[in-house]
Design brief:
The complex is a heterodimer of chains A (112) and B (114). Chain A has 112 residues and is mostly beta strands. Chain A has no helices and 11 strands. The chains are: A mainly beta (112), B mainly beta (114).
């Protein structure tokens, strides 16, 4: 089965800095990679996703890159704000399947 | 429109009791998923329903866990003879169906077994 590793487990940045979270996956057949943001007491919220037919996707201050050869994908947040503080999860889904395998999460803290 | 709704939001029960957790998916979504999130951990897949197909139960950790989905909409996750290790947040998600469609989560049920 699929295995997803996520790093770092915690990340502290100053407001305005960029933040990068990295994930690797094990199954080369995986072709869908969503990122979720989870605030305390809430369910995960989908913030961006990428499919294996593209290498990069942007949405305002958020971008995701995918390297299929190396089997890793990254979340980039620019101009961080205190409200970006949350736990971020990456996930992967194998081709032909709908269930997601999640990384263990990254706690991002943005200090004013 | 309304998102995924889960109830109760919190449940405290004694070891050995049975519990039922409910999920109302987004209207029109044919796929429904249950995940479990233990403290400080990622999400662990439990079970997946898609339309009228037989559910994918491959993630259920033991035969004490079961789930059903009536009328293709509301789902109930049942844990029998609860154990302390069952304490976790149980999350439900739904999607429009098909492979690799975005999954939208509810806020979960926090289950505590005393």
């Amino acid at each position: 089965g699929e295995n997803v590793e996520q790093h770092p487990s915690t990340l502290s940045v100053q407001e305005g800095d960029s933040a990068v979270i990295k994930c690797t996956y094990s199954d080369s057949a995986s072709n869908y990679f969503p990122w979720y943001k989870q605030e305390l007491g809430k369910g995960p919220q989908l913030i961006i996703d990428i499919r294996s037919n593209v290498g990069e996707k942007k949405d305002q201050r958020i971008a995701v890159t995918l390297n299929k050869t190396a089997k890793h994908f990254s979340l980039h947040i620019t101009e961080t704000q205190p409200e970006d503080s949350a736990v971020y999860f990456c996930a992967a889904s194998q081709a032909g399947y709908s269930t997601l395998t999640f990384g263990k999460g990254t706690m991002l803290l943005v200090s004013p | 429109g309304a998102g995924v709704s889960q109830s109760p939001s919190n449940k405290v029960t004694e070891k050995g009791k049975d519990v039922e957790l409910r999920c109302d998916p987004i209207s029109g979504h044919t796929a429904l998923y249950w995940y479990r999130q233990s403290l400080g951990q990622g999400l662990e897949f439990l079970i997946y329903f898609q339309g009228n197909s037989a559910p994918d139960k491959s993630g259920l950790p033991s035969d004490r866990f079961s789930a059903e989905r009536t009328g293709g909409s509301v789902s109930t996750l049942t844990i029998q003879r609860t154990q302390q290790e069952d304490s976790a947040v149980y999350l439900c998600a739904s999607s429009s169906g098909g492979v690799n469609q975005p999954q939208h989560f509810g806020d979960g049920t926090r289950l505590s077994i005393l």
